[in-house]
Description:
Helix content is 50%, strand content 10%. It has eight helices and four strands; from the N terminus they run ααβββααβαααα.
Amino acid sequence: MRKAVEERAGRVLASVPDWIWNGDTLPVPVEHIADSCFGLYVREVDDLSAAPWVPSLRSGQTLSGLLLPGAGEIWVNAAEARDWPARRRFTIGHELGHWCLHRAGGAVWCRSNTVDPPDEADRAPRRAYPPEESEANEFAAALLMPAHLVQRHYERLRRHDPQGCFAQLCRIFGASGAAMNRRLRSVVASP
């Protein structure tokens, strides 16, 4: 399934008009793609639990984002968006993944620990996730960090600045360290 999700994200990027993204400039303008290509309005909301059909949350549990397909909206946790711009981008990509892969089921909400988890040690094993969440994460990673661009920039930066390569990749792609680390492991044979 991972290959199919990667290919779907690639088809989305290939269909983006040049005036939105030329296929090379980074970071990938995920919000403009959601808006201009899919008609999805991205809204930053302080209390995502106020959205229709949101399930009860346990104490301390938060939502990172949700997709309201009927309204054509992606809601993003406003506090996370302010504090972690890279996470905001990933959340938008994740919800766009739900739009492209899973929207037939109605509203989709995503808890913070299932969208771009901080690192391998702080999250449940991948198999414990609902498969749709893993697929949406894979879609977001492929959309925001296209494999050919990750490889190109990784090889260039590794030659010229091996010590700063990782931090520069995160900055160039507008990605968190955790997301870039996972993407490098899946794209680059031996980092």
